[in-house]
Amino acid sequence: MPSGLGQEGIFIYMRKTTILDIKDMKRQRRKIAVLTAYDYTMAKILDSAGAPILLVGDSLGMVSAGYESTLPVTIDEMIYHTRAVARGSKNALIVVDMPFLSYQISIEEAKRNAGRLVKEGGAEAVKLEGGENIADTIKAINDMGVPVMGHIGLMPQSVHKMGGYKVQGRTKKERQQIMKDAKAVEKAGAFSILLEGIPSGLAKKITESVSIPTIGIGAGLHCDGQVLVLHDMLGLYKDISPRFVKKYLDLNSMITNAVKDYIKDVEMKRFPEKKHSF
Questions:
Q1: Counting Cβ atoms within 10 Å, is residue 159 exposed (0-12), middle (13-18) or buried (19+)?
Q2: Is 194 helix (H, G, I), strand (E, B) or coil?
Q3: % of the chain at pLDDT higher than 70
Q4: Catalytic residue at 132?
Q5: Which residues of 161-192 are buried (b: 16+ CB within 10 A; e: fewer)?
Q6: What's the pLDDT score for residue 61?
Q7: Average pLDDT over residues 84-105
Q8: What's the pLDDT score for residue 15?
Q9: From CA 17, how far away is CA 28, in angstroms rounded?
Q10: Among residues 105, 152, 217, 221, which is most buried (max CB within 10 A)?
């Protein structure tokens, strides 16, 4: 877990966060802060800041590659970015999204791809979208020794089926199914569940009904933890601005202004100066 000063001012040495630590955080009622990471530099910063979980999300397809959705992202792209994050992170638990078509075709292919993310990428856990429909796949991956985080509610890889990025669980039927999905994911052996785009009351009910931690994104304050896409939280990505995002910085504007200053300095011969020369 992240280091810091204990109650008596004794420095606690940092050690690698594991899924057992994450489960303990729910039992201890300690909230879990999760952020996405896609590269070495940012992973190193987030890790040193004490983030217990770094999620290499397939959201990289949108914020890093410029795709309109997460669907085009490949397993090889996920492995590449996971390698970079693993090199930058020493203490956080590294969870990686399994991209579209890497686990839906067959259980054997799902196991193979989960293994690649661990063996070639350095992942320590994988995340799959789905509930009852992929419970057998979750169990198979978990049984081979790879921890699994579930993902239910709004599932970006099913954006066409859901008719867009819409809040799920509005109707009684939807709420019942999402609750069934949560129970199925837990029973299959997942160590946690990400709840996306569902009403706060439903997220609270799920959190109180399962023994494993719930991580919310657009699911209210009652989850055991929260996750945000880093580029959203830092104000870097402005193509989409979800209601549930809290922007802690406006780096888009800050970087734009810095670049303009640089261009002007070059054009006006103010850079480089003598101190920048050999």
A1: middle
A2: strand
A3: 95
A4: no
A5: ebeeeebbbeeeebbebbbebbbbbbebbbbb
A6: 98
A7: 98
A8: 82
A9: 15
A10: 152
CATH number, domain of 223, equals 3.20.20.60
**Structural tokens at position 72:** 């085009």
Are 236 and 63 in contact, with CB atoms under 8 Å apart?
A: yes
Tokens describing residue 95: 């969870």
Q: Are residues 32 and 129 in the same domain?
A: yes
204 band by pLDDT with thresholds 50, 70 and 90:
very high
Residues 135-190 pLDDT 10s? 999 999 999 999 999 999 999 999 999 999 999 999 999 999 999 999 999 999 99
Number of domain units in the chain: 2
Q: What distance lies between CA 40 and its chain's CA centroid? A: 16
Cβ neighbour number for residue 42 with a 10 Å cutoff: 20
Distance CA 235, CA 245 (A): 10
Place 5 in a pLDDT band, splitting at 50, 70 and 90.
Answer: very low
The one catalytic residue among 124, 129, 186, 196: 196
Do residues 34 and 225 lie in contact, with contact meaning Cβ atoms separated by under 8 Å?
Answer: yes
CA distances from 67 to 61, 172, 256 (A): 5, 34, 22
- Mean of pLDDT over the chain: 95
